[in-house]
Amino acid sequence: MSDRVYVFDTTLRDGEQCPGASMNSREKLEVAHQLARLGVDIIEAGFPVSSDGDFASVKQIATEVRGPVIAGLARCVPRDIDSAAAAVAPAGERGRVHVFLATSKIHREHKLKKANDEILRLTEEGVRRARSYVKDVEFSPEDASRTEPEFLAQVVRVAIAAGARTVNIPDTVGWAVPEEFAALIRYLLENVENIGEAVLSVHCHNDLGLAVANTLAAVRAGARQVEGTINGIGERAGNVALEEVIMAIKTRSDFFAGLELGVNTREIVKTSRLVSRMSGLHVQRSKAVVGENAFAHSSGIHQDGILKKRETYEIMDPREVGWGETELPLTKHSGRHAMAARLVQLGFTLNEAELDTIFIRFKEVGDKKKFVYDDDLAALVEDSIAAGRDNWILDYINVTSGSTTIPTATVRLRKGDETLQDSSSGNGAVDAAMKAIDRILSKHGNLIEYHVDAVTQGQDALGEVTLKVDFGDGKLISGKGASTDVVEASARAYLTAVNRVI
Ligand code: KIV
Ligand code: ZN
């Protein structure tokens, strides 16, 4: 058995299924480029048949992102498989079609209403159809952990015989516990005669908080591909957090002896921040590996120990995952060239037009702030990517507010040569600005979530607003914006969300 553990990232597919986490195609492309720098082996870029936008985004990633295999998800039906194959085609040999079909009794009887032999037939037909397009086919028996092991073994055998080169065992509803899940992996390795022709993979959800434990137990039992998302984002309690699995295997190499990963762990923190900003999903401070507090020691005893020998209380070197790699900040005197060079260092892939837009914002911020830190710059880029091209942008905002005045905002928006302006009062300055945008664009959004964070420290810090809005159909649309002025950042964030529904 090979000792290489393949890392399959599904942030852009399963992760993006998290309510309110949807990203536009430009944001997805940026995340995909960063995942390639992180060195994941496979990027599941989306579910192409689900919408024209998803199809286009998977195709764009397959065309532009170099390095990892690019996968597209498909149900076990011809339309889905054809669509996924077409979307990943630009990646050539690096294109993978990932076909799934539920196999558990509860799914067979209540969802699919299909007998076991039909499931076996569909598995074979689906995998063969995918193989007619690409060599690299992955098959997932959905809800595998609740499937009768004997039947699961039959399905896996058929999928491999039909040409699947990876067979993934999903714990779809986060039902498994580590010992039992490891036993299932061992059972498949021992009872599926052709298992050696495929890589055995696992895909764990975190409903009982066991996703990392289950994934690691499966790896110990012989699984050689791990599927998950950055920051553990995903439906319900999320998918397994890949950064935790990666650092567990690396840090405890004594226990996971001989296992190899192709990941550049120094890119982990950067990737985590990018995903958090692009998806609008905050990372809790105490989250393992990537939380703000993951390496903060406050007790005197711990600090004393660390100063004497770091390993007394620190099992990982923070630099190993990319913490603390800061450069000298830029200032308003820094030119476009210096800014562009720093953006390349930070890992962004921007075209000239995008650089022009960001440089204007950089100068505005530089006029208000003594130093423009890397995090400020990243927030400006992410703000401008979230705003998108060919959308309404904030041209001007003026707000009056105070303890004895009715808060009022005047907003001017611009799209190409067209400008529109209107004013509104509101419960507060932020509310007034949002209502003015609503009046201009004839929308009505209800603010469901609102966060403001200081991007860096100090009184002149850039404020970054992340919000979620319901425009009346029950769907949560996220938006984000950054500025030294919190009301302006809120208006920018709200406008991003409005642009998305438009
Ligand atoms: O959780 C799951 O079962 C899935 C499959 C599509 C792999 O996401
Ligand atoms: Zn899943």
Note the topology.
Elements: E1 6-9, H1 25-38, E2 42-46, H2 52-64, E3 69-75, H3 78-88, E4 95-102, H4 105-112, H5 116-131, E5 136-142, H6 149-161, E6 166-171, H7 178-191, E7 199-204, H8 211-221, E8 225-228, H9 242-251, H10 268-279, H11 300-308, H12 336-345, H13 352-368, H14 374-387, E9 393-402, E10 405-415, E11 418-425, H15 429-441, E12 446-454, E13 463-470, E14 476-483, H16 486-501
The structure holds 3-methyl-2-oxobutanoic acid and zinc ion.
Describe what this molecule looks like in 3D.
The protein is of the alpha/beta class and 502 residues long. It folds into 3 domains: 6-279, Aldolase class I (TIM Barrel, Alpha-Beta Barrel); 295-325, no CATH class; 329-502, Double Stranded RNA Binding Domain (2-Layer Sandwich), CATH 3.30.160. The chain contains 16 helices and 14 strands. The strands form 3 sheets. The chain has an 8-stranded parallel beta barrel, surrounded by 8 helices. A hairpin with a 5-residue loop joins strand 13 and strand 14 (476-483). Helix 1 (25-38) runs antiparallel to helix 10. The chain is globular and about 75 Å long. The mean pLDDT is 93.
Briefly, what is this?
The protein has 502 residues and is of the alpha/beta class. The chain is 40% helix and 20% strand.
Helix/strand structural class: alpha/beta
* CATH architectural name of the largest domain: Alpha-Beta Barrel
User: Counting H and I runs of at least 4 residues, what is the number of helices?
Assistant: 16
The CATH class of the largest domain, by name, is Alpha Beta
Under CATH, the homologous superfamily of the largest domain reads: Aldolase class I
Each distinct ligand: 3-methyl-2-oxobutanoic acid, zinc ion
Helix content, binned percent = 40-55%
Overall number of structural domains: 3
